[in-house]
Design the sequence.
């Protein structure tokens, strides 16, 4: 058996030269052809489809911007708008690391200013305002008023300190503590109840809507997505914050003109009406 | 000697093509080392965030690995020695965490063991709440890492010559004694390799932990979650923790490989 195989091998190696040049060479050529074809097909697809307008926007803008995007597409046939909704801090990092984007709409000035300082972002006017509320699960809520937030054993979910809504949450807690209405060390006691720091406001909302957390701080505008599963505790206006949303065109944008038009739509009458419909600017 | 195909010089395009994948894997990992300096590495790893994440990760992964071994060894032995109805089913089930997305595992864990979950609601009545606790981190790790141990352990037990166990039995040793004095020592390299792999996998757990345990420094923020959080605020910290994770993973892999290759009883 073994000898037989060796014999077959010897016969094969006799054909070695031919094999190399013929069969293997052809295989090699075939591979190269395939690869070339693949690359060509890819580049063809790339030119056939126009580049979409890429909008990086804060998670809280998801519904409003999706609707504005549809309006924009309707007014610009052949243009498609692609969204990347996430925490503003994450979008900023992605842009700093070279992500291809045309527009950045953030939930606070901090991340916008950081990009402007690096020359990555053009002028960024504020186009929307928002405020915070506390949400609790709709059923058997353990938090019935804001004072309950500091009760030991309550599970609170917030956004991380670099997430705009997380920063706003700290500001609200500071104001609440300073007001003296919620007891001594209110902020410290609430912070002690925090069980998770999420990366965006929608993750906070989801954990409360699931009933896994007793309370969370979110934007007033986020409620629609989980309306039946949550109850809302309003924060008195003087203890609340005004969350400002700036929008700007990235300097690396390959479609700066189109991007500027999108910004004009957002800051213009039509865009503002859509934002108001989704609860902004009240 | 070597394989006949290798002696003939191999298939030429394969030579070129097989360079690509290792290169593709090596370049980003080496980049990770190049963008940092030893000094920044030490500085960043001494930060509060990194230290707390490291301590928590070591604690949770060790507990998770012990659980994998304690629960996985009997299972692997039963799967290897007994042919019973539903064995293939159990075998597939136990492998499933390897193929399902970890984040899906996290959602499933939350819906099962969460406060409003299928089982979690009864635990809640008893005053036990798992989500957002260190226990949740361990549970996520066990869920994801256990197949790596069970697979290795089963292969180890499969490779033990059954006649040796029989001989020990006919010489009067109880099944319990046979297991400890024959099966385990002979399967030992595989058991240890599986343990190391399960540990490494729990070290890299992210998705299920994020979903089920949340992200709180000192309580549920493991190294991988710390990388994610740092990535959004301080790239240097993120890189430093990444390098640390890379070193730990590499060490685990080298140990596992060394053990898989040896048949000796003592490492």
Sequence:
């Amino acid at each position: 058996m073994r000898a037989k195989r060796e014999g077959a091998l010897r016969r094969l190696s006799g054909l070695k030269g031919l094999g190399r040049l013929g069969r293997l060479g052809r295989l090699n050529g075939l591979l190269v052809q395939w690869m070339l074809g693949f690359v060509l097909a890819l580049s063809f697809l790339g030119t056939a489809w126009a580049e979409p307008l890429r909008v990086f926007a804060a998670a809280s803008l998801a519904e409003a911007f999706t609707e504005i995007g549809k309006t924009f597409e309707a007014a610009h046939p052949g243009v498609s708008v692609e969204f990347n909704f996430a925490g503003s801090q994450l979008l900023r990092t992605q842009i700093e690391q070279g992500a291809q984007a045309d527009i950045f709409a953030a939930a606070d000035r901090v991340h916008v200013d950081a990009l402007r300082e690096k020359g990555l972002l053009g002028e960024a006017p504020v186009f929307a305002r928002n405020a915070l509320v506390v949400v609790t699960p709709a059923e058997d809520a353990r938090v019935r008023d804001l004072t309950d937030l500091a009760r030991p054993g309550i599970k609170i979910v917030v956004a991380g300190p670099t997430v705009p809504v997380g920063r706003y949450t700290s500001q609200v807690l500071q104001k609440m503590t300073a007001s003296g209405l919620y007891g001594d060390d209110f902020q410290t006691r609430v912070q002690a109840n925090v069980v998770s720091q999420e990366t965006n406001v929608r993750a906070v909302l989801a954990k409360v809507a699931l009933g896994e957390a007793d309370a969370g701080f979110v934007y007033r505008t986020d409620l629609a997505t989980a309306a039946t599963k949550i109850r809302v505790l309003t924060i008195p206006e003087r203890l609340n914050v005004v969350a400002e949303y700036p929008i700007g065109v990235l300097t690396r944008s390959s479609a700066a003109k189109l991007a500027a038009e999108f910004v004009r739509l957002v800051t213009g009458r039509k865009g503002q009406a859509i934002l108001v419909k989704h609860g902004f600017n009240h | 000697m070597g394989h006949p195909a290798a002696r003939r010089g191999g298939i030429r395009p394969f030579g070129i093509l097989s360079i690509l994948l290792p290169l593709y894997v090596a370049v980003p990992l080496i980049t990770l080392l190049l963008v940092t300096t030893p000094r920044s590495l030490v500085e960043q790893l001494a930060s509060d965030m990194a230290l707390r994440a490291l301590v928590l990760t070591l604690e949770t992964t060790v507990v998770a690995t012990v659980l994998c071994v304690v629960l996985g060894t009997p299972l692997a032995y039963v799967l290897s020695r007994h042919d019973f109805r539903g064995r293939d089913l159990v075998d597939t089930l136990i492998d499933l965490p390897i193929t399902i997305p970890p984040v899906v595992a996290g959602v499933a864990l939350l819906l099962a063991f969460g406060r409003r979950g299928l089982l979690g609601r009864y635990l809640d009545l008893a005053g036990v709440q798992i989500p957002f606790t260190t226990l949740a981190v361990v549970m996520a790790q066990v869920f994801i890492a256990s197949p790596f141990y069970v697979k290795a352990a089963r292969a180890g037990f499969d490779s033990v010559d059954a006649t040796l166990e029989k001989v020990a039995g006919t010489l009067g040793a109880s099944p319990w004694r046979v297991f400890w004095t024959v099966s385990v020592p002979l399967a030992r390299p595989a058991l240890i390799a599986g343990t190391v792999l399960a540990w490494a996998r729990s070290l890299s757990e992210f998705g299920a932990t994020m979903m089920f345990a949340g992200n709180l420094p000192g309580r549920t923020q493991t190294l991988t979650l710390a990388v994610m959080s740092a990535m959004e605020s301080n790239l240097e910290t993120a890189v430093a923790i990444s390098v640390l994770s890379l070193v730990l993973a590499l060490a685990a892999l080298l140990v596992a490989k060394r053990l898989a290759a040896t048949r000796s009883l003592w490492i």
